């Protein structure tokens, strides 16, 4: 199946007229090659899906099409004509419309006001509004998009708000409509409705590009589909000729296998127990749905899953940062308070350490000196403080020791943390959390944005911690990492643990669980 | 984080450039109204620094600005924008006055002073506590609530001064003059060269507060937690730092520092509590903290600059009738504009200049 | 050697400054309201400008921006040999009390306050008497039996206005109701015409048909709103009848300009008298304004009544209570 890679640039039906073509698009952000020689060709009046994991480069590519970024090299053609898109204004006039994942609507404006926003055409609104009302009515009839033009956005359910975004794009004359993760915020019924609208638009000759990581949607609605992985377009296939399983494997892909040498685990007592944990986020959406799991001393439990399926919320609830709605967490057999005012400081005291997913906003204070970050969370402990005062000498000595032990570079405890590279920043966090000798270690995305050399070091340290009898809960969106580190793998999808497997389970099988496909279904 | 400048550029060169630019533009304005800008600046500098009494006035203004600047800076380190220094100082004046009125007649000043410090701190902190609590518990934005509390403080104080504290038969909304034990010694009592200037020993307390703030922010656990919260609230929560505690404690310290200003004005200068004695010093503290980069040393320097602007400006208005007090406000406003709002004007080109000279210290992210 | 000489000359020059008082150098210190406050300070400014126009003599001036500058300004002018030095407003009393004894040769005058020193002339106005007269007119003019009073900042001086006004109203109609509001508690209340207008509207809605504005620049809004609503208003400090002819019933004039003008002129002519100088109805320091703009509004009966009251106050037959003598008002 991996042979599909070679057909990456081949368009499935080259005979139909091309709505948009991308040829050899490259985009770098510093050392990160976000888009590598991307070729893409979408036929007029078709629905084209782009799938890939978070960070695969989908959003960057769409931003280039919509003029938010400029490609370093490559060409964009609209209906065969080469075109330069230097900003979103140019994209709009080229007939490209975008429906963002997070709606770009003014919440306290009416539907009509939002639709003419940016296209007011003159200082006096009244005329523009009357004209827009007429045009809008026409559009709504044509595409069966029923929205009350005078409704205020914040009063509308998200499904209707999305419809307003689509109408906004159509009002500006979009022929090519890009939808970025459109169903992420929708209920299943709303999603079905959206698909009917998309079918309708297609029937009217519009071209639609659908970005998603949900394979079912791709199978249900697209004509053709491209798969992106690590900045590359690895395959473009006709939907009718592919299968869920093939797409799943293409999406997860094969990585350079990082060999982590480790002996089989010798699990001891259960140190961390999670029972029926449910977390509702600020928007009121259930993100973690009755998750139960346990982690024993001397084992690494890995949680695999596509980003956004509740792993982050699970970690935050267990570590006391975000209050859970219901459920229990037991640390070394002792219940800890996770539903009300949880207290991360107390958890640290009881022997839990936490390497957060987001080191920039949570794990580190970037403007701090390195030695200051080396005590974050432990600013209450000896020897870093004496009474109410910080012991700067002790802090710097301790930081210097950790710098040496973890080979953090440059070896300067006084340097501002933001000046360290991603890998070294991550080592600062790991050193801090591991050197406090916790019993339970929660680790989120240990190697995100970390260079290869550091990855190896970090993996080694995690295994050493396990061998020292710590209970480790590891969350990563890198399936390879989970497979090479974990002793047991749990797969999360849509807030639930949908399966448990051994690390040597074939990638494709785990990949399908990650995509929300039941094992029985996949076997078909 | 890549755009870092050497410390001396950040703390020294940029403020200097900003002030120079402000004076150049002010010079144009002076020129426009038909006066000689060189003479104007000479007059200003001489009036503020050139003779003892003028320098005394400069120090007296500086004292106010150190206190209000420190107040803004402390809150700023915790990511809070306390623009209620005006009201906090006003209410603190009440605390100082109550202490001075009740103890001044019986005790010498050096016994009254520590109690007055406590009075100023407690009253100022209490006035900051309510907005802090509303921010921490109800999410009411502290910028809105502190500025509203300035108005409430003004109303409350005028009510008290007119109806409760006023000397019967007097027209002035002010308390009686404090007895000798309720007043601070003037610097002129020790150094006659200070003429009739109202500079008093509270300036030493202001400098002590600078040391206190330095230790608090960079040498204590509380300061560490405040800075963590100020830079990244999510990191603070991760580190087990209670946002409520930090907001409330920080604002109370900030309010207490703003309140210390009342020592200089009420116990030092006026020797009685009078209406509207804060006269905008609380707001100038914002500019002082911005210019001083929220560092005590920077704040002392910025406070001195604003002291010079205030005293030099008054002398200028005497010497050049065409330059009205509104012109002085324009010049002060230009300094605030260049030091605060246009702070980033010179920064990008300096960063370019210095990054060319010194290759980046560390690899970029 | 040269330096020493220079120092000596400089010292001599410093000491000689007061001797130069002979070449007449008057000075005027405005209080925080600023010289263009459309009221008290501006009235003083007008008096000084008139003096300049009449005599061709320049005067020095300074606008105070914070409390500590009051003393500083007086001393600076005195040091530079200015005399007479006129300071505006009661809040300058204490600083003047400190500085005046240090410059016994310099002549000082303070407006609106008393400083009992041998070289100070204190000019105060009997605002309660003038307010009594306009209160009497308001009480007679009112058809609803309800009149209004809009004060500026809530300070005793304004309560003095209010108290005299209420006494006048009650003298005309013992049953009359007076709605009183202060514009605010900060100095901003002296210059907030919008709020003044709102308060006036509320008072008119409450039945008031004559509104007296004792609120500095805020009064402009009071007078405007009363004119818009077809009601009557009373101006203050200077004659404001011209602002809305047919609506401004009269103005309680307080001749600050005359006080300043006279102080300058007396000093120039060498007959500057110090001491207490209360300008009341008798000296025309306060009064009510009648001109073409309001002639039709004031009936002969009203004219007669107010002139009679004026005469009786001057004669001492009517004692108008001064709020500031007791910090209270018997009729409020």
Structure characterization notes:
- Chain A has 524 residues and is of the alpha/beta class.
- Chain A has helices spanning 58-65, 88-93, 111-116, 125-143, 158-171, 188-203, 215-221, 244-252, 311-318, 344-349, 359-363, 370-373, 392-405, 422-435, 452-467, 479-485, 507-514, 519-522; strands at residues 18-29, 32-43, 47-51, 73-78, 81-83, 96-99, 176-180, 207-212, 224-229, 232-238, 270-280, 286-296, 299-304, 326-331, 334-336, 352-355, 385-386, 389-390, 440-444, 471-475, 488-493, 496-501.
- In chain A, the strands form 5 sheets. A 6-stranded mixed beta sheet of chain A has the order 6-7-8-3-9-10, with helices on both faces.
- In chain A, α8 packs across α17.
- The longest helix of chain A is centred in the first third of the chain and has 19 residues, at 125-143.
- Chain B is 74% helix and 0% strand.
- Residues 358-365 of chain B have low confidence and may be disordered.
- The N and C termini of chain B lie close together (9 Å).
- Chain B is globular.
- Chain C folds into 2 domains: 2-126 and 257-279, Rossmann fold (3-Layer(aba) Sandwich); 128-253 and 286-326, Rossmann fold (3-Layer(aba) Sandwich).
- Helices cover 42% and strands 19% of the residues of chain C.
- Chain C contains 11 helices and 12 strands.
- Chain C has helices at 2-16, 40-55, 67-79, 93-99, 127-141, 156-172, 193-205, 219-228, 256-268, 300-315, 323-326; strands at residues 27-30, 60-63, 85-88, 108-111, 120-125, 146-153, 177-184, 210-214, 232-237, 248-254, 275-279, 286-288.
- A 6-stranded parallel beta sheet of chain C has the order 2-1-3-4-5-11, with helices on both faces. In chain C, strands 7-6-8-9-10-12 form a 6-stranded mixed beta sheet, sandwiched between helices.
- In chain C, α5 packs across α6 (156-172), α5 (127-141) runs antiparallel to α10 and α7 crosses α8.
- Classes of the chains: A alpha/beta (524), B mainly alpha (365), C alpha/beta (332).
- Chains in contact: A-B, B-C.
- The interface between A and B is medium-sized, with 41 and 27 residues.
């Amino acid at each position: 199946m991996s042979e599909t890679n070679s057909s990456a640039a081949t368009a499935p039906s080259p005979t139909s007229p091309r709505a948009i073509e991308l040829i050899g698009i490259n985009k770098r952000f510093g050392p990160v090659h976000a888009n590598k020689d991307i070729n893409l060709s979408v036929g007029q009046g078709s629905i084209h899906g782009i799938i890939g994991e978070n960070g695969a480069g989908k959003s960057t590519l769409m931003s280039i099409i919509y003029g938010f970024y400029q490609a370093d090299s490559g060409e964009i053609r609209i209906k065969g004509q080469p075109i330069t898109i230097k900003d979103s204004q140019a994209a709009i006039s080229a007939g490209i419309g975008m429906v963002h994942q997070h709606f770009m609507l003014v919440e306290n404006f009416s539907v009509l006001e939002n639709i003419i926003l940016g296209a007011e055409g003159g200082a006096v609104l009244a005329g523009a509004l009357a004209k827009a009302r007429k045009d809008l009515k026409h559009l709504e009839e044509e595409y069966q998009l029923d929205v009350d033009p005078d409704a205020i956005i914040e009063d509308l359910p998200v499904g209707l708000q999305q419809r307003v975004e689509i109408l906004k794009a159509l009002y500006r004359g979009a022929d090519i409509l890009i939808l970025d993760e459109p169903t992420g915020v929708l209920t299943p019924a709303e999603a079905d409705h959206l698909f009917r609208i998309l079918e309708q638009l297609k029937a009217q000759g519009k071209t639609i590009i659908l970005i998603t990581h949900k394979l079912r949607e791709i199978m249900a609605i697209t004509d053709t589909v491209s798969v992106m992985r690590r900045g590359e377009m690895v395959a473009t296939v006709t939907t009718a000729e592919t299968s869920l399983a093939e797409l799943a494997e293409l999406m997860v892909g094969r990585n350079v296998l990082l060999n982590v040498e480790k002996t089989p685990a010798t699990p001891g007592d259960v140190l961390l127990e999670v029972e029926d944990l449910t977390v509702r986020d600020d928007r009121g959406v259930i993100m973690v749905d009755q998750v139960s799991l346990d982690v024993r001393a001397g084992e690494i439990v890995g949680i695999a899953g596509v980003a956004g399926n509740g792993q982050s919320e699970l970690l935050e609830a267990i570590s006391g940062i975000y209050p859970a709605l219901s459920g229990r967490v037991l640390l070394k057999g002792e219940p800890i308070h996770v539903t009300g005012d949880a207290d991360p400081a107390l958890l640290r005291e009881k022997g839990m350490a936490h390497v957060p997913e987001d080191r920039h906003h949570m794990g580190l204070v970037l403007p701090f000196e390195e030695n200051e970050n080396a005590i974050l969370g432990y600013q209450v402990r000896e020897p870093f403080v004496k009474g109410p005062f910080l012991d700067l000498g002790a802090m710097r000595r301790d930081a210097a020791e950790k710098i040496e032990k973890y080979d953090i570079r440059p070896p300067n405890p006084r340097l501002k943390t933001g000046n360290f590279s991603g890998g070294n920043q991550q080592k600062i966090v790991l050193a801090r959390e591991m050197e406090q000798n916790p019993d339970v270690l929660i680790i989120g995305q240990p190697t995100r944005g970390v260079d290869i050399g550091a990855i190896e070091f970090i993996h080694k340290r995690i295994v050493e911690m396990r061998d020292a009898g710590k209970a480790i809960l590891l969350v990563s969106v890198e399936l390879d990492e989970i497979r090479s580190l974990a002793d047991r793998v749990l797969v999360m999808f849509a807030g639930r643990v949908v399966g448990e497997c051994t690390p040597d389970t074939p990638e494709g099988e785990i990949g399908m669980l990650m995509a929300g496909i039941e094992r029985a279904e996949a076997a078909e | 984080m890549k755009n870092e400048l050497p410390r001396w550029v950040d703390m020294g060169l940029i403020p200097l450039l900003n002030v120079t630019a402000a004076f150049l533009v002010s010079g144009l304005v002076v020129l426009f109204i038909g006066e000689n800008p060189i003479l104007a600046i000479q007059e200003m500098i001489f009036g503020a620094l050139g003779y003892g009494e003028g320098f005394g006035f400069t120090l007296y203004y500086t004292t106010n600005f150190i206190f209000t600047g420190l107040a803004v800076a402390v809150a700023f380190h915790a990511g809070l924008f306390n623009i209620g220094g005006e009201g906090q100082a006003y209410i603190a004046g009440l605390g100082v006055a109550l202490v001075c009125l009740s103890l001044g007649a019986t005790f010498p000043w050096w016994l009254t002073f520590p109690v007055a410090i406590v009075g100023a701190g407690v009253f100022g902190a209490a006035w900051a506590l309510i907005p802090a609590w509303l921010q921490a518990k109800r999410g009411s934005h502290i910028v809105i609530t502190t500025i509203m509390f300035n108005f409430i403080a003004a109303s409350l104080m005028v009510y008290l001064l007119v109806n409760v504290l006023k000397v019967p038969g007097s027209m002035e909304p002010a308390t009686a003059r404090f007895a000798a034990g309720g007043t601070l010694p003037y610097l002129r009592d020790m150094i006659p060269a200070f003429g009739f200037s109202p500079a008093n020993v509270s300036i030493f307390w202001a400098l002590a507060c600078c040391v206190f703030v330095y230790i608090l922010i960079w040498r204590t656990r509380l300061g560490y937690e405040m800075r963590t919260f100020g830079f990244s609230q999510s990191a603070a929560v991760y580190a087990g730092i209670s946002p409520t505690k930090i907001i409330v404690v920080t604002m109370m310290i900030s309010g207490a520092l703003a309140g210390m200003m009342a020592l200089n004005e009420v116990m030092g200068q006026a020797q009685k509590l009078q209406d509207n004695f804060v006269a905008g010093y609380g707001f100038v503290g914002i500019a002082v903290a911005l210019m001083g980069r929220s560092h005590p040393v920077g704040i002392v320097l910025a406070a001195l600059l604003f002291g010079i602007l205030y005293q030099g400006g008054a002398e200028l208005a005497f010497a050049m009738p065409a330059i009205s007090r509104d012109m002085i406000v324009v010049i002060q406003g230009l300094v605030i504009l260049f030091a605060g709002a246009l702070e980033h004007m010179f920064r990008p080109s300096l960063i370019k200049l210095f990054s060319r000279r010194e290759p980046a210290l560390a690899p970029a992210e | 050697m040269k330096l020493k000489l220079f120092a000596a000359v400089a010292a001599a020059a410093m000491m000689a400054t007061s001797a130069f008082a002979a070449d007449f150098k008057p000075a005027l210190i405005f209080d925080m309201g600023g010289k263009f406050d459309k009221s008290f300070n501006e009235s003083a400014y007008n008096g000084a400008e008139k003096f300049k126009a009449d005599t061709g003599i320049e005067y020095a001036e300074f606008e105070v921006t914070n409390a500590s500058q009051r003393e500083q300004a007086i001393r600076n002018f005195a040091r530079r040999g200015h005399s007479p030095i006129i300071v505006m407003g009661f809040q300058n009393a204490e600083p003047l009390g400190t500085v005046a004894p240090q410059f016994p040769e310099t002549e000082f005058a303070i407006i609106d306050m008393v400083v009992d020193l041998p070289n100070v002339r204190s000019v105060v106005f009997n605002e309660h008497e003038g307010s009594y007269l306009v209160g009497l007119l308001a009480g007679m003019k009112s058809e609803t039996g309800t009149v209004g009073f809009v004060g500026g900042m809530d300070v005793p001086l304004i309560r003095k206005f209010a108290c005299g006004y209420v006494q006048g109203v009650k003298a005309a109609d013992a049953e009359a109701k007076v709605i009183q509001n202060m514009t605010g508690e900060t100095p901003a209340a002296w210059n907030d015409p919008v709020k003044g207008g709102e308060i006036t509207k509320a008072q008119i809605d409450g039945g008031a048909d004559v509104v007296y504005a004792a609120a500095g620049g805020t009064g402009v809004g009071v007078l405007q709103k009363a004119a818009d609503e077809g009601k009557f208003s009373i101006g203050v400090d200077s004659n404001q009848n011209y602002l809305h002819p047919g609506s401004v019933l009269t103005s309680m004039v307080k001749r600050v300009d005359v006080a300043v003008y006279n102080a300058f002129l007396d000093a120039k002519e060498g007959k500057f008298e110090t001491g207490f100088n209360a300008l009341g109805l008798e000296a025309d320091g306060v009064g009510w304004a009648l001109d073409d703009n309001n002639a039709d509004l004031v009936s002969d009966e009203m004219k007669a009544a107010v002139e009679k009251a004026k005469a009786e106050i001057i004669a001492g037959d009517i004692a108008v209570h001064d709020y500031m003598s007791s910090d209270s008002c018997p009729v409020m």
